Hints:
The protein has 381 residues and is of the alpha+beta class. Helix content is 37%, strand content 22%.
Amino acid sequence: MTSGESFYGGIPVFRGFTSLMDPALYAPLPDDWSIGVADIVDSTKAIAAQRYKAVNMAGAAVIAAVTNALEGREFPFVFGGDGASFAVAPGDLDRARDALAATATWVREDLDLTMRVALVPVSAIRAQGLDVRVARFGPSANLSYAMFSGGGLAWADAAMKRGEFAVAEAPAGTQPDLSGLSCRFEVIPASRGLILSVLVMPVRGADPLAFRKVIEDVIHLVERSPDGARPVPPQGPPLKWPPQGLDYEARTKRGGPLLARRAGVLAYTLFAYLIMRFDIKVGGFVPSLYKRQVVENSDFRKYDDGLRMILDCTAELERALSDRLAAAAREGIVRYGLYQQDAAMMTCFTPSALRSDHVHFIDGARGGYASAATALKAMMA
């Protein structure tokens, strides 16, 4: 393994989310790395058509495809609801490009959505006077998630939307390796009143220290309040059979007609449902342990040049957050979007159920991050 490839693994993991804005936690990416970005074109229309699950599946597919292309090697990534971002070493660039191209084709052919994808050299970002710095947050002892700062990720996303650094779709029929990607759990109803999608970004030119203070205030409001928490209940998300995401999971499989793939997923998910429902140990798989890890590994808060959170909270906490953010917006420090819904949803990436590092991406179940982003854009109009 080269020093560049081992860069991310060498970053110490921090545990307390309240430390998120400490610059000392973030290490600059090597100059020869690249940033991958992907998002769904017209995701607002897809959300309006209630295609929430398809939009989330597309975003998570990017991470699954690149992870599998890199043969499970650790790399920094972040799930954005209707897209994803990540960083790769030069030795992994070609594999990541092929995975992105194949995923864009799969999203169009199997999900009937359009995904734009791009690969942006870190050197091109630094030429703009911006940076890409990475930290590793450990929500549990099982795994860590990447956090990004420096403004470079947001610039790469904007460049992609302008049509720059584009990666062309793979030929028709190309299927990425989406092994481990699934969405078997049901939506997760709010237990405290509402599910709140939170998106907070800095205003261009805002004082970095003032922005840091706002983010820390928001995190402390949530951390110190008994009225807000992770949206995944302690016993794990609801599980039924057949699962709501049956068709999407069937479409992730390679080979054979869709009907046969659907039948295979139907049979396998019944087996999995019975094991989970009756807490049956199979080989090294312990259902109760897996459920606990699902809760611990849920990715419901993150930072990628802005704060993203999916919270199960009361109306009182929502008002407190809204008041703090509105005051910061009046001062020209932040732009933000809040979106209320009645449930959250989970999309899972489990390369192996016998390992503890399976990843569970959380979004709001009725619009989520995409709708919060729409609210943020409305502030700028």
